[in-house]
Design goal:
Elements: H1 11-42, H2 47-57, H3 64-75, H4 81-106, E1 110-111, E2 114-115, H5 117-128, H6 134-167, H7 172-196, H8 204-230, H9 235-262, H10 265-268, H11 274-278, H12 283-291, H13 294-303, H14 311-323, H15 326-347, H16 352-366
Antiparallel strand pairs: 1-2
Amino acid sequence: MQTPSLDESNPAFRELLEDFRGGLEGALHAWLSGKQAELTAEAPASRELVSRLDQYVQRGGKRLRPALLYYAYRACGGGDRELVMPAALAVELLHTYLLIHDDIMDRAPTRRGQPTAHLVFRDEHRERGWHGSAEHHGESSAILLGDLAHCYADELLSDSTSLLEARAAGASARVRSCYATMCQEVITGQYLEFTAGQRPNLTDDDLLQILRMKSGRYSVERPIQLGALLAQTSDAVLTGLSEFGLLLGEAFQLHDDLLGVFGDVSTVGKPVGGDLIEGKFTLLVHYALAAAGDEDARWLRAALGNADLSVDEIGRATELIRRTGAERRVAEMVETRHSQAAEILDRLELDREGKSFLAGVVDYLRERTL
């Protein structure tokens, strides 16, 4: 999922995000350095795996998911950084795990401008002259790297819930349940998206459910819920923030689907038509197929997932999606959700700094351009 560059039009939001991001990256590096020292003292050869994880997470990224958790915690009156930061680190490492595995499934060559983890391990295998398949070694090692990130995410989340439980007996159960649900949803949603193109008669509701499970909840709603639960907010505020997060998460992913077809590498880091080449069966494609004539629909279905699509064929596909009105329909869904999310947030009684950040996220995601 791509995000825009930080916009100069909202300096308060930009400052909050940059301050948080700097602190998170320093804390993450320090924590992973400690794990590296711990593991390599027992098994020196493990250094190349653990150090690779630290290098991977330091490649950059906006860190929006942990920032949403942190500022939701602040918005609900939370003020204990020692309690909330391990959970924020956990969300970032969970995202790392999913990106590493996602790149294997998508056969992606790059991530954040650098070779993907499985290709780095593949090339190391070749350089060392090891026996066996370099491709198999690369993918297997990257799977283990992602597993390690997931393991560390669980450990960090446990650090936060242990502190919470020590201060308020019974309060950690809802946090652990929310985190477990988030993990289950995103993994299941990924599978459902991966197989969507093979399933006949998918409805709008089916595809919205996939969108929510695979990205909308995991990217926005669940991090916000985790922060609110760590702050032990009221059920009324939690419900409002959950509604806000779900709408914003859906808008985020729907807009990402538009960028995956109509965006270009200079603005969103992926080529025009990238999602078509990968074969992603999104609401955008679903609406286009439903509105297209029989011949155009057959052609678009055949084009979906064809890694050898030419520039002209990608142009034909994007023009077809526009002509059927699918692009406009999805863009309207995005704008409706942004507006509804902003209205919900405006009604909630929240801490000023945290609420300012959440409002800034709405504007920030709304301003993404094709």
